[in-house]
Structures are given as structure tokens and as C-alpha cells.
């Protein structure tokens, strides 16, 4: 049972006043007017108020001692975390020359009578490049995939048609955007000369529909994609505005592009966009292809990451008195993580010499000549190294002391953070300073990741964990907890010899690990952000959740840097004589095919919405980060039962019956390696379920 918090005195203002009134007849019997209007009662209220303040301070002493004890065992309150969001800058008009958006550009929410503006700063610079059109091609994307001779990703198309840019826009010249008889996989490839990653691009089309063969502009049968290379290959672009109404009329199409990489198609190098017909072409697509007469490409803006932070530069802290252990306080707090290269202290001596002091976590390794300082992120307090009296009578200095009379100035720091920075989409709309040729700014996605500073109660909860570990790895739980603390590790599983079920067999290439005596085997799942997901046609337009596709296989690879960081962390804490085997989990890629039935008479848009919800449920559930019954990631070694997928799909709104659900083992990039699972899919202790491409059909 935990010890109760000591309350030295629980009296408050009202209690003190009641006690004083009871004592009046004893000490002053002639005082008979006890009404609030009496001057004596006013004096009592003043003293009761002052006593209440003293008792409040007295009761803070246990908290102060508790904080001191926490610092002695290495527990510090975590500072606030800043929210981040992609911010898009829009130009007032297309420019003929590149335009730079400087790093540290500040944007904010609208200030109201009740709420202050929330300020964000861009984390890196952005360069808006005017695009140059180099080629147009029409081909079918279902041709065989190949790699070009330089190792760049590419595709070969035997039926590709190259269009003459020199004649584009001339009277009477036009060509079909897709094949004359459009079919799924047909695509218009656009070759750009330069890298336009994260750009906002406007494509102005002059089109003519042959025979009036238009489609529903609200449900176009195509998707816009940008080449990213590697395994992720084509990534979906966000359509911000479609003035062509799905190529029904001439107009402007505005795209927000993802990260791009150079690739080779049709023996041509460049950066590629494509408009590809999806399977919807078979149901309500083009009867004949629209013809393209003109095409203009302009850059309208760029998207850069920003976070909830305000930048302060060249803040004067004061003058040094020449003694060790000096402390100064910044004007703003809480302070965000310092960059050792930019966020430094400038110490200007009386002779005009400038010395730079760099931030360190503590002074334990600081030599007397090292110019170091520490910063308390929560309070904004800057401290220089102290001097400690040694056993032999000498004094050792931890870090250099600024000379007496020197001026101390903080060159740069950022403050902010907290849950208040988790603003919704389109809330950041104010430019704090004018940027040439920039008309407006906004965030199309909500800001996320903001967190308030850690409370004392939360820090107390960590004490049993720290005292249990004692900074040593002995049990399997110790190894998992310590490995998960390394930045970049999402989850860890320690595989022991007694975890494998005797006689258990697994389908496909799944095998249980054999752990020899004296060896600790850790399966490390690297952290993956939503930006590392592959956009798929089936879920790319789903507005319900940020998860919009399967995880890129190469993002799940355990890098040598991450493996080395975990090895270095655990080498300091493992017992002598044990060896470490650090490896990636065994990923079991599964593809689900399901047929669902919606309500009788459900329209096509309703069935499409049900299908997207079902796809979202599958990608979210069969996921090492967000999957599993508890939504915290598919558990290591947990068996997948097909019956639970029936229940998952049946719970999707709009689904009446889930039928014909099949689970197939796959290998990314090897379509011939497929094995259908019946009943359940057992997994060894080091294995995780990962979603490959799922297929869902909704009937009525």
C-alpha cells in the first residue's frame, strides 16, 4: 500500500475565521459586534488571509522534497512537446524564377478576443521551382515492370505513344488522353524536368470530348500519382481543385504533390506525374477518350513542415560575475529542444572576444576548459558549470566559467509546445511577416503531436519502473523496456527458448527461432510515420482516418544505424557473458479478399462508401502499429483467426453480411508466392502481421 501524501495543515480561510470568532469571547469579552462591517472583523480577515497563504506554502514542502528525491534517482519532468503540421504557402501569381520560403517563417491562427494566436514556425526552407514540361506519353500501366540500367525505377510499355510538344496548342492538333477505347490501366504520363516535391502544381487543360463521352465529375474513374521510386513507386497526389470536371470541359486542375524522385520511363529521365484509369473505368468510365488540345503547367505553392514554436534570437541574459554555477533565466518558456549547432550562448568579453557555449544534458563529462551550459526546458533556466571541492583540497571546475563582466546572450532558441498546438485543419491562416509573392497560407491537415509538460504525479509513476530496472537488463521485460526507449524503436520483443509451442508448424516460409543458451534475441520494430504509407486506389480517398494504405516494405527494414544504437544502449546494461542478437521481426504479409453485402437497394455511392470503410478497417486491424484487438499494434506471435475478420467486417457500418473472406500469404514484389490460409494463421513469437493489398467487393 503506498504511503499517503502528508498534509501538514488542512485549514483554509473559512476555518481560520471560524476559529477566530470562537476565541473572541475568551480573549475579548467586551467585543460583541461580530458582523462583517465591524473594523475588527476586517482585521481578522486580513490575518486569516495571510495565514492561509502561509499554510499553503507549508503544505508545498513535501512536493519540494519529492522533486529533490526524484532528481537524485535521475527522474526529470518531461517538457512539453510541440505539435507539427504540413503548411502550404500559395503564390499570388505564377513566377518565372524560383522563390524561396525561408526556414523559421512564422504562421499563426487568428487572434480572437478570448484566445491568443498560436504561432507555428517552418522547420526547413522551401524552394518553389517553375515547372518545365518535357514530354507527354500515353500508355497502359499493366505492362511488365523493369529497372533501367542506372538502377532507377521504371516501367516498360510496349504500346506507349509519345505526343509532340512542339505541335501542342496549334490549331487542329489534338490527341487522346487515354487509349481511343479506354480501359483500366491507361494513363497519361507527364514528364517534368526538375524536382517538384511537395509543390502545389496547376495543370491547365484544353480538352475536347469526342462524341460528348463525359463521366460523372464527382466520381472520376482515374487517380493522379507521382513517381517516388523504390518499393513505394507511385504515390497518390491530392486533388485540390478540378476545374475540368473530370476532363468534361477545359479548365484548371490543381494538385498537391508528394515527395518525388527521378525515374526513367520510355527511355527518358525526369520527374513524372501520371493520370491513371482505375477499375472504376469498367463500371462508369469513358466510352471514348477525351482529346487534349493544350496543356500548361504552373507552380502555385509549396508545402513545408512546421511546428508549434516561436523563434527568439539574440536575447540578452545579463553579465557574468565570474563565479562558477551562475544561473540566468530566459524570457520565455517552455523551451523546445536545442540545436547544438545553432542554439548556442554567446559570451562577449570586455575586450570584444566572442566565445560560444554549447548545450549539454549535464556537466558530468565537462572538463574545466569546456564551454558548456545546461538548460531547464520547463523553467527556461540557463546554468553554467559548478566547482566541486575534492578530497585532496583542490577545486575541480565542471566547464569553463564566463569571465567577469562578460555579456551573455542567447543566439537563438524556440519556445512553445503543448496540447494547445493540436489545431484543426485550415486553422493556420495568418502570416506573421510578409513574404514576397505569397498570397495566403493554410494547413490542410490537422496539427498533431502536441503534448503538455509532464506532471509531478506522472513522474512519480515512473519511480517503481526505474528502481526495478536499476539501469540493468536481466529479465526479458527489462530488455524490451530498455530497447523501446531508444529513439526510432516502436516496439521490441525478447524471444526466449520457452516461447515456441512444441510441435507447432507454420505455413509458408514462417519458422520459429532457435535461441541458444547465453544469447538474448530481440525483435525490433522500427518506428514508421504515416508519411511512409503507400497510397492505394482502394483507400486513397478515404476521409475517415489518416491511415491510407499499406506500409512500404522498405520502411520496416531494421537499419544498421538503429541496430547499432540499440546495441550500444544494451551493451552498457546486459550481464557479462550474454550475447545480443538484434533483428527485425519476421513480417507475415497477408492479403484479404472479401465479398460483402450491403442493404437491399443500396446505391452505388453507398456501396462505395461501405467498401472504403471495410478497407480502412482491414488496413487498421492488420497492422503492426495500430492493429490488434487493443489498437496498439498487432501483438507479437498472436494467431490470426479468419473468424475474427468476419466479425471485423460485419461491424462496418452498412454491412449486412460478410461472406467469402479469404486470407492469402504474400511476399511483396513476388506475386507468384501466394498461399491461402484456412481456419487460422499461427505465428511464432518473433512474427508480426502486416497488410499487403486487400480487395473488397460490395454487392447488394
Outline the fold blueprint.
Blueprint: H1 13-27, H2 39-58, H3 61-72, E1 84-91, E2 99-101, E3 106-108, E4 119-122, E5 126-128, E6 133-140, E7 145-147, E8 153-155, E9 161-163, E10 175-176, E11 186-192, E12 199-208, E13 222-227, E14 234-236, E15 238-242, E16 251-256, E17 263-265, E18 268-277, H4 281-284, E19 291-307, E20 309-319, E21 327-329, E22 345-348, E23 354-359, E24 372-376, E25 381-384, E26 387-389, E27 395-397, E28 407-416, E29 430-431, E30 438-442, H5 456-469, H6 476-484, E31 489-495, E32 519-526, E33 533-535, E34 549-551, H7 560-571, E35 579-583, E36 586-598, H8 604-621, E37 640-641, H9 642-650, E38 655-667, E39 670-677, E40 680-681, E41 687-691, E42 695-699
Parallel strand pairs: 8-17, 23-24, 32-35, 36-41, 36-42
Antiparallel strand pairs: 1-19, 1-30, 2-5, 3-4, 3-29, 4-19, 6-9, 6-11, 7-8, 10-19, 11-18, 12-16, 12-19, 13-14, 13-18, 15-16, 17-18, 20-28, 21-25, 22-23, 22-28, 24-25, 26-27, 31-32, 33-34, 36-38, 37-40, 38-39
What do the pLDDT scores average to? 84
SS content category: alpha+beta
How many domains, in number, for the residues? Answer: 4
The number of helical runs is: 9
* Backbone shape: globular
Strand proportion: 25-35%
What does this structure look like?
The chain is an alpha+beta fold and 700 residues long. It folds into four domains: 13-59; 133-300, Jelly Rolls (Sandwich), CATH 2.60.120; 312-416, no CATH class; 471-699, no CATH class. It contains nine helices and 42 strands. The strands form nine sheets. Strands 1, 3, 4, 10, 12, 15, 16, 19, 29 and 30 form a ten-stranded antiparallel sheet that branches. Helix 1 crosses helix 2. It is globular, with a radius of gyration of 33 Å. The protein starts with 12 loop residues before the first helix and ends with a strand. The model is unreliable at 144-154 and 530-548 (pLDDT under 50).
Amino acid at each position: 500500500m503506498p504511503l499517503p501524501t502528508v498534509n501538514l495543515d488542512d485549514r483554509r480561510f473559512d476555518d481560520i475565521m471560524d476559529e477566530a470568532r470562537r476565541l473572541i469571547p475568551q480573549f475579548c469579552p467586551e467585543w460583541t459586534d461580530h458582523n462583517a462591517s465591524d473594523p475588527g472583523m476586517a482585521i481578522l480577515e486580513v490575518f486569516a488571509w495571510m495565514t492561509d497563504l502561509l499554510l499553503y506554502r507549508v503544505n508545498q514542502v513535501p512536493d519540494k522534497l519529492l522533486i529533490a528525491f526524484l532528481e537524485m534517482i535521475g527522474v526529470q519532468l518531461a517538457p512539453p512537446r510541440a505539435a507539427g503540421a504540413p503548411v502550404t504557402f500559395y503564390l499570388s501569381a505564377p513566377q518565372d524564377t524560383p522563390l524561396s520560403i525561408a526556414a523559421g517563417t512564422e504562421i499563426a491562427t487568428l487572434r480572437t478576443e478570448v484566445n491568443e494566436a498560436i504561432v507555428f514556425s517552418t522547420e526547413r526552407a522551401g524552394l518553389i521551382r517553375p515547372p518545365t514540361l518535357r514530354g507527354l506519353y500515353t500508355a497502359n500501366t499493366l505492362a511488365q515492370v523493369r529497372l533501367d540500367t542506372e538502377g532507377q525505377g521504371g516501367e516498360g510499355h510496349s504500346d506507349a505513344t509519345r505526343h509532340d510538344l512542339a505541335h501542342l496548342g496549334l490549331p487542329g492538333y489534338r490527341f487522346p488522353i487515354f487509349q481511343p477505347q479506354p480501359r483500366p490501366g491507361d494513363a497519361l504520363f507527364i514528364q517534368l524536368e526538375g524536382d517538384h516535391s511537395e509543390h502545389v502544381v496547376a495543370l491547365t487543360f484544353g480538352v475536347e470530348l469526342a462524341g460528348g463521352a463525359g463521366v460523372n465529375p464527382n466520381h472520376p474513374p482515374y487517380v493522379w500519382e507521382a513517381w517516388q521510386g523504390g518499393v513505394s513507386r507511385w504515390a497518390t497526389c491530392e486533388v485540390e481543385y478540378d476545374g475540368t470536371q473530370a476532363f468534361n470541359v477545359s479548365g484548371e486542375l490543381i494538385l498537391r504533390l508528394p515527395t518525388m524522385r527521378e525515374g526513367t520511363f520510355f527511355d527518358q529521365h525526369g520527374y513524372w506525374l501520371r493520370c491513371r484509369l482505375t477499375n472504376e473505368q469498367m463500371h462508369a468510365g469513358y466510352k471514348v477518350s477525351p482529346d487534349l488540345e493544350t496543356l500548361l503547367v504552373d507552380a502555385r505553392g509549396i508545402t513545408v513542415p512546421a511546428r508549434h514554436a516561436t523563434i527568439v534570437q539574440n536575447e540578452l541574459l545579463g553579465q557574468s560575475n565570474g563565479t562558477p554555477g551562475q544561473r540566468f533565466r530566459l524570457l520565455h518558456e517552455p523551451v523546445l529542444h536545442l540545436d547544438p549547432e545553432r542554439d548556442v550562448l554567446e559570451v562577449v568579453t570586455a575586450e570584444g572576444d566572442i566565445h560560444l557555449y554549447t548545450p549539454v544534458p549535464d556537466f558530468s563529462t565537462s572538463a574545466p576548459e569546456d564551454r558548456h551550459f545546461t538548460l531547464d526546458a520547463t523553467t527556461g533556466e540557463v546554468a553554467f558549470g559548478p566547482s566541486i571541492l575534492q578530497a585532496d583540497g583542490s577545486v575541480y571546475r565542471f566547464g569553463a566559467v564566463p569571465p567577469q563582466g562578460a555579456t551573455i546572450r542567447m543566439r537563438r532558441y524556440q519556445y512553445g509546445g503543448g496540447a494547445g498546438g493540436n489545431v484543426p485543419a485550415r486553422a493556420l491562416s495568418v502570416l506573421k511577416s510578409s513574404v514576397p509573392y505569397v498570397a495566403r497560407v493554410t494547413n490542410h491537415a490537422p496539427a498533431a503531436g502536441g503534448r503538455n509538460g509532464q506532471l509531478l504525479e506522472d513522474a512519480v509513476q515512473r519511480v517503481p519502473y526505474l528502481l526495478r530496472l536499476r539501469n540493468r537488463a536481466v529479465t526479458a521485460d527489462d530488455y524490451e523496456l530498455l530497447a523501446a526507449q531508444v529513439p526510432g524503436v516502436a516496439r521490441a520483443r525478447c524471444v526466449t527458448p520457452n516461447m515456441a509451442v512444441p510441435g507447432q508448424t507454420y505455413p509458408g516460409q514462417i519458422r520459429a527461432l532457435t535461441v541458444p543458451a547465453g544469447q538474448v534475441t530481440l525483435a525490433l520494430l522500427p518506428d514508421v510515420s504515416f508519411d511512409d504509407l503507400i497510397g492505394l486506389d482502394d483507400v486513397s480517398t478515404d476521409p475517415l482516418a489518416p491511415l491510407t494504405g499499406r506500409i512500404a516494405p522498405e520502411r520496416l527494414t531494421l537499419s544498421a544505424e538503429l541496430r547499432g544504437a540499440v546495441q550500444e544502449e544494451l551493451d552498457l546494461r546486459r550481464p557479462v557473458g550474454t550475447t545480443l542478437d538484434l533483428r527485425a521481426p519476421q513480417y507475415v504479409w497477408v492479403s484479404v479478399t472479401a465479398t460483402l453485402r450491403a442493404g437491399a437497394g443500396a446505391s452505388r455511392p453507398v456501396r462505395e462508401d461501405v467498401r472504403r470503410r471495410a478497407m480502412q478497417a482491414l488496413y487498421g486491424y492488420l497492422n503492426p502499429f495500430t492493429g490488434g484487438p487493443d489498437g496498439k499494434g498487432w501483438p507479437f506471435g498472436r494467431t490470426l483467426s479468419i473468424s475474427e475478420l468476419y466479425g471485423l467486417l460485419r461491424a462496418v457500418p452498412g454491412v449486412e453480411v460478410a461472406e467469402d473472406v479469404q486470407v492469402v500469404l504474400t511476399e511483396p514484389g513476388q506475386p507468384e508466392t501466394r498461399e491461402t490460409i484456412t481456419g487460422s494463421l499461427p505465428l511464432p513469437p518473433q512474427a508480426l502481421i502486416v497488410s499487403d493489398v486487400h480487395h473488397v467487393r460490395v454487392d447488394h
